[in-house]
C-alpha cells in the first residue's frame, strides 16, 4: 500500500470517528428545562455526551450544534427577531 493510500485511510477513519461522535452529541443533548440528558435521563452532560465531546477536543475541533436539541421552548425561550 502506498503512503498516499495510508493518508486517505487515516482521513476516512477520522471522518468516521467524528461523524460517530457528532451523532452521539446529537442523541444526548442536555435539556434546558431540567438539566437531564434527553436520552439517558441522567444529569447532563451524560457520560456518552462527555465521551463524544472529548473526541472533538482531541482534534481541536468544534462539533455542530443541532438547533432546538435542548428543548428551549420548555423554558419559554424563543427566537427574538433581529
Ligand atoms: Zn445521554
Structure notes:
With 82 residues, this protein is an all-alpha fold. The chain has one domain. 45% of the residues lie in helices and 0% in strands. The protein has 2 helices and no strands. Helix 1 runs antiparallel to helix 2. 10% of the residues are buried. The model has no long low-confidence stretch (mean pLDDT 92). Residues 28, 37, 39-40, 46, 48-49 line the site of zinc ion.
Topology readout:
Elements: H1 3-27, H2 47-58
Helix pairs in contact: 1-2
This protein binds zinc ion.
Report the radius of gyration as a whole number of Å.
17 Å
Number of continuous helical runs: 2
Global shape:
elongated
Structural class: mainly alpha
Q: Give the N-to-C terminal Cα separation.
A: 55 Å
SSE order, one letter for each helix or strand: HH
Q: Number of domains in the coordinates?
A: 1
Hetero groups in this structure are: zinc ion
Low-confidence stretches: none
Strand coverage percent: under 5%
User: Which percent bin holds the helix content?
Assistant: 40-55%
Number of strand elements? 0
- Largest beta sheet, briefly? none
Q: What's the mean pLDDT score?
A: 92
Amino acid at each position: 500500500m502506498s503512503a498516499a493510500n495510508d493518508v486517505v485511510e487515516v482521513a476516512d477513519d477520522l471522518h468516521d470517528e467524528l461523524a460517530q461522535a457528532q451523532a452521539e452529541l446529537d442523541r444526548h443533548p442536555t435539556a434546558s428545562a431540567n438539566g437531564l440528558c434527553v436520552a439517558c435521563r441522567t444529569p447532563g452532560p451524560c457520560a456518552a455526551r462527555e465521551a463524544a465531546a472529548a473526541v472533538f477536543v482531541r482534534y481541536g475541533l468544534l462539533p455542530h450544534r443541532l438547533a432546538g436539541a435542548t428543548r428551549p421552548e420548555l423554558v419559554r425561550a424563543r427566537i427574538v427577531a433581529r
